[in-house]
Amino acid sequence: LSGKQITIDGTLRGTNLIIKALDDDVTLSVTADDLGVDPDSVESLGIDDETSADISIFDIVSTALISITETARLIASGSVSLSAATSQTHPLIPLVGTGCNMVNVKVGTATITILGSIVSGGNVDVSAKTAITAEASNATLAKFFVPLAVGVMVANAEVTLGDGASIAAAGSVSLLSQTDVTLKVRATAGKLPISLAVSVVVADSHVNLLGDIVSQAGSITANSIGNATVETTASNKAPAETSTTGNAGTNSTGGTGGTT
Asked: pTM, whole model, 2 decimals?
């Protein structure tokens, strides 16, 4: 099973049960066919007909959810895998360059909640992961009296085995929650002699075990991981632009007729 938000409230039986919830910040994907480009031209450029460009337009929130309700039972003779993941990598405004995205806000949530029971003849793997990579910069807008850049990232990954829920496996049981956030914010002074860079990051990662877990011939592991890399820079002046000119008869680089 796959989707963005999945709820199971009945009984699932099978050899291997694999359930995936995935979400990202892609609003639409554009192919050569969508643009009406001549197929021969695409081929001459060495581009595959199936190549597409992903575009995100003010897509702030990504949510991946798996909910195993109290009445649900997952029964597998083999393994059981539950994974929820979000990935956000695009600016709010596409195609205009990073320097025009003075504000970038992303909220990513990956949640797995188990309130029912899971019975597996093999291993049980449960993972919730949220990844955000983003930038904010006023490099292009500084000359239009825009002195600031702001980045706000909120990432949450959570796995919960509720009170009264159970996992029974013949093999190992692994539960993982992980958040990875990378944010770069750069502000440059332009028409105004000031610059302000603001970075806000909230990265939560939780594994909550309130129910029962039994592993007959393996190990039980529960890991909660949170990683955040933040770079915030404010410069009081725009990068200097230098040029070298030369005049005839002078010792200047680029001059004509000079002597050494």
From this structure: 0.78
